[in-house]
Specification:
heterodimer; A: 16 strands; 45% helix; globular; B: alpha+beta; three-stranded antiparallel sheet
Chain lengths: 404, 63
Amino acid sequence: MTIHDDRPRCPVVEWDYLAGGCPVNSGFARLTELGTQAPIVEVEPTNGLPGYLIAATGEAVVEVFQDPQRFSSNAVIPIEPEPEYLMIPVMIDPPDHTTWRRLLAPHFVPSRVQLLEERIRGRCVELIEGFAEAGSVNFIDEFAAQFPNFVFMELLGLPQEDFDQFMIWENKIMHASTETDPDRSGARQAMVEVATYLGNLIEARRADPSLNGDDLLAAALNWEIDGEPVSTGDLQNLCMFLFIAGLDTVAAQLTVMFHHLGTHPEHRRRIVTDPAVIPQAVEEYLRVFPNVATGRKVTTDTEVAGVPVKAGQMILLPTSPAGRDYSAYPDADVVDFDRPVVRHASFGAGPHRCIGAHLARLELRIALEEWHKRLPEYTVQDPDSITEHTGGTTGIDKLRLAFG
Amino acid sequence: MKVRLDKSKCQGHAMCNAVAPSVYPLDDEGYVAIDVVDVDDDDRDKAKLGVETCPERALFVEE
């Protein structure tokens, strides 16, 4: 017996979740191509990695983001469907997630992050002036990675004398390569060290409230969930997640923006001569060059954008198809600071949308403002050699800017 | 012109607030603090831009 089923089927595609050494910004076109095949495509298990689905159109991505009942975030990395770790709050589903979110939200609203502006701007200026006379800069190591690390430490009220140690941990965790850390044991060890550091700090600040300033961690020590203080373990998980979520993403966004400006003099001159355009430029760069891909697990047999999916399947959710939506923008891959409407889901959508979005925008805006006041003329060194890595965060591997 | 918010969809992106702060005030948790708002003629264009940039499609123009 044949049952006729005319619902759209899932095309099977070739996809490497951790593709590396790719030409800069080439991942976007690969995703766009998938979206022309179907809203949901399937990657089969390969090389010991489990298979998963990819949401490849903006409509499909946003549908999954917006429905935590059908699409759980108890697993958010498509090749890790049964995680033994818990990142708070991103891996918690509503209604418990809502409780966490209400506690965190007031610390991340636009008016609140504005209070950090002066200190963030001051540090940004220090960093730029540190290399402004050098003639060129290794942009990621000397600026893009350091700047958000400072902001993370400010947000939690961590002592700035530990800055260099955090940079060492950040490098070991985020930039482990086959050459430097073949079995990733260095990255795992650094994760344990950060968690231990944060656990000790939380205990010390519980024991001696005079150590607490006006920061997020100080507030969190007084939080209660269901009438109980939040445990040190949960606070550790929360801080670890803020560390992971806020550093590489902002660093990658800064790098891709400055790569574009360093290779597009007309855009760069616009930023220099018309700094009022910077907030629109930041938004347009977020639309064209989003760097995050997350995931969800299907909880029940259902459909996404009309395509059937099964309970237990993982879905890779790249954010780029929402902003690079060719039905809304015929020239979706072109950077245009004067678009009347800039709509994207580069910070995700639904209840888990990036809580740090307003802080990230502030960092990106300040970096563009302060850099171009001091270094209006610069170029990308060896522009044909620029490559990107992919995975949870897409980012440029190395970028040297010359301004001498 | 009136703009209505579907509160269940608002996630605090605050894109609308960025383009039209007087039309779309935020509450203490960063969500848009309106149900329905009467938009002055002077604010029409900004208010419509807020509707169009919402990543959640949570705002609706009601003439």
